[in-house]
What we know:
The protein has about 300 residues and is of the alpha/beta class. The chain has two domains: about 1-220, P-loop containing nucleotide triphosphate hydrolases (Rossmann fold); about 225-290, Alpha-Beta Plaits, CATH 3.30.70.980. The protein has helices spanning about 40-50, 70-75, 90-100, 105-120, 135-150, 165-180, 195-200, 220, 240-250, 270-280, 295-300; strands at about 1-10, 15-25, 30-35, 55-60, 65, 75-80, 155-160, 185-190, 205-210, 210-215, 225-235, 255, 260-265, 285-290. The strands form three sheets. A six-stranded mixed beta sheet has the order 6-7-8-3-9-10, sandwiched between helices. The chain has a four-stranded antiparallel beta sheet with strand order 2-1-4-5, covered by helices on one side. It has a four-stranded antiparallel beta sheet with strand order 12-13-11-14, with helices on one face. Helix 6 links the parallel strand 7 (about 155-160) and strand 8 (about 185-190).
Amino acid sequence: MLVIETAGLTKRYPRVTALDELDMSVGEGVTGLVGANGAGKSTLIKILLGLVPATSGTAHVLGCDVATEGKAIRSHVGYMPEHDCLPADVPASDLVVHLGQMSGLPYPAARERASDVLRHVGLGEERYRPIGGYSTGMKQRVKLAQALVHDPRLVLLDEPTNGLDPSSRDDMLSLVRRIGTEFGIAVLVTSHLLGELERISDHVVVIEAGRLLRSSATTDFTHATGVLLVEVQGRTDANQLLGQALVDAGLRARPASGMVEVDVRNEETYDVVRDVTVELGLGLVRMQERHHRIEDVFREGGAGSVQPV
Length: 309
């Protein structure tokens, strides 16, 4: 089932085109939306929520037209904004209860749901303290909680790991993955950090300058390349020695970032690499097949400022 679908979606401002005839579709599970800063990710989310009108084209969310049914969309969709927009003098519990009520929940239900989701995102007794004293990681958890409080069918998460340290980032990514797998809520998560989306997404949509660059299952991005990466030790010229010996043995090999790349012809390639390494008296540290990464799409497409993790 498609939860998001756009056709020819365009958004023009006086000096820039944020979205340029974007055709894309998003199904159940966790979908990563990746693009450089300024690629149009945040603009797309605002249009999908019915908050910003498109210049042309159409978009539907959960079967609703964003141009005419924005209120209905927002009642079934949770939104976690990128930027810090939380009131400093309000406890997280009060804020999430209030936003639950704004989404249509009666007060008793909003209070119960707020308590549940705040515990789920990892805020215990801290939820009774004013948000102004929270760390960046805690504030991100509050934003995630308010996006979930009304039990949405879809959540739009705009750069949920923004500003987090590595440990907090890992925790947030685990939460996002659980939302899509354990709770059965469809997730569209944006990021300019490619490794994050490879870790948690079932499907990845890549946009560049407001246009669709590629849309594929994550496994299609990360399939094997047919190239073996070999790392050896024992001599300062170990890589050069091994590479030449493999070429002499009839394989195609070349140096690559402190290792040796070997084209895999068949299963015997692994045995040849092992045997040649032993014959040279070198220590075999690592031998693994290289996989494509999402960042390769940007290299091929010429996009910039999108970062691997």
